[in-house]
């Protein structure tokens, strides 16, 4: 039925994106030769910092208006209850942190990749993106993420020069400044993204001529703050590399559920966009126990504790908070706080969820 047509128009759109991208690349070709080793973060930084004129085209407009370098926060989400309650909590905290000192947070967009508006368009600024055609994600739903970003970057009018790619299960604990600079992205390093270990597989997508495998940073697409123009180039490649990796049995097996993270890291490196690695960008309870200097709490892991406050990982705790408990029901307001002895990171997380749900009108509806 419509599936073939949809696929066809996807191919057309995507080809258009690639053509645009090729034009950009050829336009930049002479510029690129100025950098003997463009993807090494050090050389990129030094080449740029000695001559600020090079980065003016991106920075001019914003510096003339204001000294702040604002970034736009974008969160990709489906229309599931699971993603929606997380987005509502996320946006609540975004709004609270945005106007505090030190914030360089600009606009916010939920990129909803279900293909149609939902009931929360008025509550959360939303861009509706089309999902991949049936079957194209090969059961790996997060492949919709790069495709959603490609559509948003092509179609939406984004005022800010920088983009923060965030996720529904992020809670902003502090106002976030522009951590990106000198043409580099700012990213959180994940211990489980190990480009060196998978060099043989990665070389299929990042050939020798692009430089050492260490040019691929140990990151995913989120959290990353990166220049909008850089992301416009990276996103179509990210999409392409994700699909190519998913089709490659060796890569699919090696990378599993973090395939699309590797794909972003590779795409960024292919475009010579290095990243400043900020370990303190975010914490992940229950492994990280204190908030410290972190900007984001990422609640991707379940938090299970006994009533003595001892972690019972792998075993359902007498007290627990796990986002997966609420995959098709709304979490109730006023979740029970953890017992004494549970780390600050977990206590803060539950308190912040509670504050959001207490204040968001019509919670649970
Ligand atoms: C897309 O991926 C294929 C396979 O890895 C590669 O040959 C091609 O050059 C890529 N194109 C772009 C624009 O990234
Ligand atoms: C939240 O629940 C606790 C018991 O867990 C109760 O003492 C408290 O009054 C409740 N707060 C609100 C605002 O409902
Ligand atoms: C990391 C970074 O470059 N931060 C800069 C962001 O912009 C402000 C000005 O608004 C500078 O003071 C920061 O140094």
UniProtKB/TrEMBL annotation:
The keyword Transferase applies. Keywords: Glycosyltransferase, Membrane, Transferase, Transmembrane, Transmembrane helix. It holds the Pfam family HPAT. It is found in: Membrane. The chain crosses the membrane at residues 6-25. InterPro entries: HPAT-like, HPAT/SRGT1-like. One of its GO terms (molecular function) is glycosyltransferase activity. Residues 71-363 form the Hydroxyproline O-arabinosyltransferase-like domain. It comes from the Eukaryota. GO terms for cellular component: membrane. This is Hydroxyproline O-arabinosyltransferase 1. It comes from Sesamum alatum.
